[in-house]
Amino acid sequence: GGKYYKIRGVSVQFPYSAYECQLVYMEKVIQALQEKKNALLESPTGTGKTLCLLSATLAWRETYEPSVDSPANDPLKPHGSNSVPSQGKEEVSIKPPRVIYSSRTHSQLSQVVKEVQKLEHYNLKTCVLGARKNMCIHPEV
């Protein structure tokens, strides 16, 4: 379901017809990822920031290729991976980076899980972690 938009060479699935501000937001997310730079993005409440961020990031992740020049120094290299192109042999595949989304409150994370479910194209595994005080019913733990 949803629509696909080509943004900076990346095919992005978005579950709705995107507004111009959403396309610009996704473009800035992808630009930062492609250029391996930080981005500070803002948009008013209710403009779909979460869905834009997740859609753009997951679409970019599917097209991710590690730096050919120096894969060992690639800051986006997956944690725990020591795969590098081998000399004169077949290249060892490198998995794309993990996407970790964190939030201050459990209710915000619950909303994100609902948004992620709208992104059918991406084969996602999700896990919500919470503090012991919110999750455990044993009084002494």
* SS element count, helices: 4
Low-confidence stretches: 69-73, 78-83
Strand order of the largest sheet: 1-2
* Number of strand elements: 2
Provide mean pLDDT, rounded.
80
Question: Biggest sheet, open or closed, and with what strands and sense?
Answer: 2 strands, antiparallel
Radius of gyration: 18 Å
Which range does the strand content fall in? Answer: 5-15%
The rounded distance between the terminal residues' Cα atoms is: 44 Å
What gross morphology would you assign? Answer: globular
- In N-to-C order, the SSE pattern is EEHHHH
Kindly state the percentage of residues in helix: 25-40%
Q: Based on helices, strands and strand pairing, what is the structural class?
A: mainly alpha
Please provide a written account of the structure.
Helix 1 (20-34) packs across helix 2. This protein has helices at residues 20-34, 49-63, 106-116, 132-135; strands at residues 3-7, 10-14. The model is unreliable at 69-73 and 78-83 (pLDDT under 50). Helix content is 32%, strand content 7%. It is globular and about 55 Å long. The protein is built from four helices and two strands. It is mainly alpha-helical and 141 residues long. Strand 1 (3-7) and strand 2 (10-14) form a beta hairpin. A two-stranded antiparallel sheet has the order 1-2.
Task: List descriptors.
141 residues; mainly alpha; 2 strands; two-stranded antiparallel sheet
